[in-house]
Amino acid sequence: MEEEQLLVAQDQYLKAGIHIGTKFRTKYMGAFIYKTRPDGLSVLNLKKIDERIKLAVNLLAKYEPQDILVVSRRENGWKALRAMSKLTGIKVFAGRYLPGILTNPSLDNYTEVKILFATDAWPDRNAIADAVRVGIPVIALCDTNNQANNIDFVLPCNNKGKKSLGLLFWIVTKEYMKARGLIKTDSDFKEKVEDFTEE
Fold first, then answer.
1. CA quadruple 53, 160, 143, 103: dihedral positive or negative?
2. 181 in the Ramachandran plot: left (φ > 0), alpha (ψ -120 to 50) or beta?
3. Which of 128, 134, 138, 191 has its CB 3.0 to 4.6 Å from that of 195, i.e. a possible disulfide?
4. Distance, CA of 45 to CA of 157 (rounded, Å)
5. Which distant-in-sequence residues (6+ apart) come within 8 Å of 84 by Cβ?
6. Three-state DSSP class for residue 44
7. pTM, whole model, 2 decimals?
8. 172 with 56: CB under 8 angstroms?
9. Homologous superfamily of 3-196 in CATH?
10. For residues 41 and 22, what is the distance between their CA atoms, to the nearest angstrom?
11. Does residue 57 contact residue 172 with C-beta atoms inside 8 Å?
């Protein structure tokens, strides 16, 4: 695997544990699993994770920040979402998503978007169900144990660990800003991975 082709150094991915899956694996995620360790943990393919991050960013970059909603019921993603929103203007929902936010105009927190990005298909299932109802595409971070129902684009990764989520959203934010012309190069992006990672 050539370092320069990856979005960050291979070592940085490995330290964040972005590739460490669970002891459960679904047939949907089989294509992204590199191997199963002797202790039963499935390990995701790092090259495929990197490729899918690039594809996800290309897809997100087609949308204005206000047309994107990123959701995370999982607390380990909240700091990352807030950092992403502050830098890009992308709408985020950190916490328990109540059904209807995308479908019921009479709600105070009703919002219209054109694409949904979910941190985990299972805890974020209410948001995904709403997205399906209004007919917008869904990108979701999926671990080895996730189903891919109602997900248009699966981004394989460890979607539970705080370091993994911090690194992933740091990369997505930086690459989105480059793709949208908000920054020119990596060196223009001053935020550190720690700014996206829960304590």
1. negative
2. left
3. 191
4. 9
5. 70, 90, 92, 169, 172, 173, 196
6. strand
7. 0.94
8. yes
9. Glucose-6-phosphate isomerase like protein; domain 1 (3.40.50.10490)
10. 5
11. yes
Query: Structural domain boundaries of the chain?
Result: 3-196
Q: Does the pLDDT of residue 3 top 50, yes or no?
A: no
* pLDDT tens profile 75-128: 999 999 999 999 999 999 999 998 999 999 999 999 999 999 999 999 999 999
Paired tokens of 37: 């360790």
Exposure string for 31-43, b = 16+ CB within 10 A, e = fewer: ebbeeeeeeeebe
Q: Which of 49, 42, 37, 35 is nearest to 7 (CA)?
A: 49
Task: State both tokens at 28.
Answer: 């949907």
CA distances from 174 to 64, 66, 152, 167 (A): 15, 17, 23, 11
Q: Are strands 33-36 and 42-44 parallel, antiparallel or unpaired?
A: antiparallel
Give dist(CA 30, CA 35) in Å, integer: 10
- Summarised one tens digit per residue, pLDDT across range 16-61 is 999 999 998 898 898 999 999 999 999 999 999 999 999 999 999 9
Q: Is the pLDDT of residue 2 over 50?
A: no
Cβ(21)–Cβ(41) below 8 Å? yes
DSSP letter, residue 162: H
- Cβ neighbours of residue 163 closer than 8 Å, sequence gap 6 or more: 15, 16, 17, 197
Q: Distance between CA atoms of 175 and 61, rounded to whole angstroms? A: 9
Q: What is the pLDDT of residue 4?
A: 55
